[in-house]
Amino acid sequence: xxxxxxxxxxxxxxxxxxxxxxxxxxxxxxxxxxxxxxxxxxxxxxxxxxxxxxxxxxxxxxxxxxxxxxxxxxxxxxxxxxxxxxxxxxxxxxxxxxxxxxxxxxxxxxxxxxxxxxxxxx
Length: 122
Description:
The chain is 29% helix and 16% strand.
């Protein structure tokens, strides 16, 4: 059973690998680190929306979808999940341990830096 912190489910590395392998439409996994951190190694196929840009994009995000947030250590992504829950999103989760805990494949460069939140749903 997954652990919860402040009401946010904390996902393990194995759970994250399962989501990436299955390539399902949901949950939508979002990296919330800064561009430079993302360029230096991120989860393959996972888009970047830096944490400080989330408030400007939240109105365009679909509250009926499920989301998982990723950062370097799990703290910024936890705070992002808490913020979205406050905005009315009910299915938000955090990758506990973040990229520091990741031992799988990495992608490098600006693979998918989100400019328009609609990109998440295509």
